[in-house]
Structure formats: C-alpha cells, structure tokens
Amino acid sequence: MTKIQKLEMVNMSKSFQGFYANRDINLHVKSGEILGLLGENGAGKTTLMNILYGLYQPDGGEIRINDAPVRITSPLDSIHHGIGMVHQHFMLIQNHSVIENIALGYEKTPFFFPKIRIRDKVVEFSRKFNFDIDPSRKVWQLSAGEQQRVEIIKALLNGADLLILDEPTSVLTPQEIKELFRILNDMKSRGHMVIIITHKLDEIMEICDRVTVLQKGRVVGGADKANVDKRELARMMVGRDVLFNVNREKLAKGEKVLSVSDLHVLGDKGLPAVKGVSFDVFANEIFGIAGVSGNGQRELAEAITGIRRISSGKVVAGSRNITNLSPRKIYDHGVSHVPEERIKFGIAPGLFLYDNAILKQHHLDKFSKKIFLEYGRIKLHTRSLVENYKVATHSIDVEIKNLSGGNIQKLILGREISEKPSLLVASHPTYGLDVGATEYLREQLLLRRREGGAVLLFSEDLEEIFELCDRIAVMFQGRFMGILDASDKERLKDIGLMMAGSVSYTPLQGAIDK
Ligand SMILES: Nc1ncnc2c1ncn2[C@@H]1O[C@H](COP(=O)(O)OP(=O)(O)OP(=O)(O)O)[C@@H](O)[C@H]1O
C-alpha cells in the first residue's frame, strides 16, 4: 500500500430517488493537512464522506489517490487504500474490551496470542500519539472521548493515512476537545491528512488549515483559514449574514409551570445520578441547566418527562403532580420533550416523515375521520412543519431515517414547539444544527418564552446558555452547585469552576469553596 500524499474527489455525484445529495463535487486534501468540510444540514457532507469510505457508490465522478484513479466499493477497499473513518455514532461493541474491539476490525489479528500482541500494538500507538487509554477496559466504562480514541487507534492500526471524522466534537467535553485537537495536530505533523465535518465555525478556525463549503449538494466556496473569518464562513454556508447574538428582552416572570422538589433518580448502572435536586420554572422564562454532560442532566430530563423512574421526590407541572406518570400522560399535561438521544426517543426511524410529524399528537381527531387517518391533512400539516422549520428534504414521502441528522432534529423541534407546550424540556437542541438552523431555533425558543411558555434548556454550550437563559443552574455529580440569575455577572464568572465542582453557591449563604 503506497502512502497517500494527495487525495482528490473529482466531479462526484450521488442521487437518491432522483434527488442529488452531491452534484459535481471537487475536493482535494494533501499530506499534513486538515480540511474542514462545512455546510448546512442536509448539504451532503456525510454522503460525500460515505462515498469516500465505500459505503455509497457514486453515480458519477472519480476518486484519485496520488493522481491515479481508484475504485472504492466497500469500507474494506477504503481501509486498504489507507482511509479510516470515525462516525458520529461510534461503532464499538459496548460489552467488549478495547483490545477485543480493535481485534474485530483489525486485518492483521495474529492467530497466536492475539490479545497480548494487540495489547502491545495499542500500547505502542498510545505512546506514539500520547493517548491515554487502558486496553483491557470494557468500552462501556469509557467516556465518549476515550471511545473516540479507540476508534482513532483502530483506524491508525489499519494504516490510515487519511482520517475522516464526522462531527467529532459534538459528544466531547471541552477538555476532551482539546485532547482531540492535540492528537489531530500530532497526526498532521507526522504526515497524516484529516477531513473533519463540523458545524462549529470556531473549531474550523482553530484546527483546520483549509475549508470547503457545500450548499445543497454543491461546492459553493473554499478558502485557506488564513484568508477568512467566522462571519464570512457563515455567509458562505448559509448564503446570508448570520446573527451571532440574539436579543433577549426582559420579561416579568409568569406563573409557576414546573416545580421539582428533592428529586432522586438512579442512572443506567443503578447508581444515584440525580441527588436531591429542587427548582421551579416559571412562564415567560428559559431556565438553563449547564454542566459537563454525564453529571445527571440526562437522567433529570428523563425523570421529568416520564422516561425514567423517580426514586423519591416530586415533580409538579402546573397544579398536577406528574411524578412517575407515563410519558404520554406527562405530554398531555403540556410538557414536551426534545430528547438528547433523538434517534432512540425522538422518532420512529422506519416510518415516513409525515408519520413522524404527528407522533405524540393528542388531538388525533384533527387528522382522522372515525377510525381512519386522513393522510391528506397529515401531509398538509407535515408540509407546513417542513416549510416553517426549514427541514431540507426532497419529499415528505421518505423514511425519516434517510434525512440528515440535523434535519431530523429540526423536524422533532418543529413538532414539539408547534404544539405550544406550557413547558418544553429541550436537551442539547442545537447539537448537530448548522449556524442558520441554530439561529432559527434560538429565535423559536425566545418566541415561546415571549408567548408565555417556559423552556427547560439543557446545554453544554455556555454561549447558548448565556444568550437564552433567564436563570441558570449548574449541575455537577447529580447536584445543583447553585442557581444563578442571568443578570448576576459577578457570580456568572464562576460558572466554569462550578461546572468543575470547585465552587458552589447556595441561594442564601453565598460562595462555599470546597
Ligand atoms: N440513504 C438515503 N436515502 C435517501 N436520501 C438520503 C439518503 N442519505 C442521505 N439522503 C439525503 O441526502 C441529503 C444530504 O444528506 P447528508 O446526510 O449527506 O447531509 P449532511 O450535510 O451530512 O447533513 P447534517 O449536517 O444534517 O448531518 C439529505 O437531503 C438527505 O435527506
């Protein structure tokens, strides 16, 4: 296998049922370079990289390695050519150890003493790239960042000169992002090349040397990082200026919409995940829950919305005790949910887009006559959701799993917000959304607030939390380290320390340094 010095995709096209996801795309990357692939949701980035990785066959176009055309018809072909891909959702087997996972994808697994020999290889690579990974641990014991490192080691062990990463930072903590960037820079200095799909313009500006921008399946621009700024990139991507700061007017608090008292909830492994959390949320308010993920946020959101059992404590929505009611009943009491695991809990992947648009509808009579569903009305409703929430799809007669990740998210958001719930519980709603869609979503949340709704917003993105929230709770190891008012600039300075558990505030006693 010759080392890849240069890789090109020339006039690449790929269509699905007559709709072009990629059209005449030209792209190149060379040794020692990190290329950012940028584009709105549904612009065709994942499709293009899936072609390069052999998961899709293009309708036309050519892949060239070191100026020679190559045919890539499967991921195995791609690996043979020195290409590795780390998908957005890791492809590891949770109950297997790091070594076993690596052996599964490793072409040269030795017949004798495979474990010892693979362990040696992992240790050798970990040393070379300064990875911190224990090869005998089970994958489920690893953090998202560690799992990603296992995927990277797998690719490197198979001889990847080019590494493709699909939205690699969306599941990482700020610390893990730093670590990933260090690894990528190290790879770069050793002559590897990297293509990163990301929506985060700050990341492009930090890690990439060059960027190629896609819009509606075509290349619409490209630039060396040195010659562009964040604003220009956003304009290239969305085709207009994007507001980076939204305007949140002051509103008086309305009536109490949610009251949570002394809530205790267990996590997946039966250990306490939420440990005595109490707070209220009011109409005309966005209440933010900040913190590094994995500190009980998911369990708290799931407990409020009925997906997870509450061990003790109480949740009241309006005047109704909703503790441990079913998700259906809680929804009927005006609490909507945009879940963190959107594919698992937010949609029925094998159903059509229009079926998914009316999932959870409590006024099904709007869409049925006697016992029959009225598809004419359902489709009309779906079209308006698709239009209002700018879901990029060529048709509503497609299975929703075929939509890009960001567009699935937009449909879920549209479905939940358009029902005008009194409380919207939104977990990381802008994950995977492009800047244009993020701006639109934030406007929608503020609109809900203005209209008298309340939003409970879980986010790791502090910029988002500061822009949108009236009050902010910081969660660490299952507890609130304090609830801060957005106008309390002095205490907000400590938010980083609170997220790390080094400072906690109680409302009356002030700061308690631990
Ligand atoms: N298997 C498929 N069948 C039908 N349409 C598909 C399929 N895969 C992708 N598409 C369509 O191709 C278009 C491009 O999707 P793709 O996933 O490449 O976008 P993306 O730029 O990666 O978006 P995101 O940022 O939201 O992940 C979308 O309109 C999507 O619905």
TrEMBL record:
<dbReference type="GO" id="GO:0016887">
    <property type="term" value="F:ATP hydrolysis activity"/>
</dbReference>
<dbReference type="InterPro" id="IPR003439">
    <property type="entry name" value="ABC_transporter-like_ATP-bd"/>
</dbReference>
<keyword id="KW-0762">Sugar transport</keyword>
<dbReference type="GO" id="GO:0005886">
    <property type="term" value="C:plasma membrane"/>
</dbReference>
<dbReference type="InterPro" id="IPR050107">
    <property type="entry name" value="ABC_carbohydrate_import_ATPase"/>
</dbReference>
<protein>
    <submittedName>
        <fullName>Uncharacterized ABC transporter ATP-binding protein YufO</fullName>
    </submittedName>
</protein>
<feature type="domain" description="ABC transporter">
    <location>
        <begin position="7"/>
        <end position="241"/>
    </location>
</feature>
<dbReference type="InterPro" id="IPR017871">
    <property type="entry name" value="ABC_transporter-like_CS"/>
</dbReference>
<feature type="domain" description="ABC transporter">
    <location>
        <begin position="258"/>
        <end position="502"/>
    </location>
</feature>
<keyword id="KW-0677">Repeat</keyword>
<keyword id="KW-0067">ATP-binding</keyword>
<keyword id="KW-0813">Transport</keyword>
<dbReference type="GO" id="GO:0005524">
    <property type="term" value="F:ATP binding"/>
</dbReference>
<dbReference type="InterPro" id="IPR027417">
    <property type="entry name" value="P-loop_NTPase"/>
</dbReference>
<dbReference type="Pfam" id="PF00005">
    <property type="entry name" value="ABC_tran"/>
</dbReference>
<keyword id="KW-0547">Nucleotide-binding</keyword>
<keyword id="KW-1278">Translocase</keyword>
<keyword id="KW-0472">Membrane</keyword>
<keyword id="KW-1003">Cell membrane</keyword>
<dbReference type="InterPro" id="IPR003593">
    <property type="entry name" value="AAA+_ATPase"/>
</dbReference>
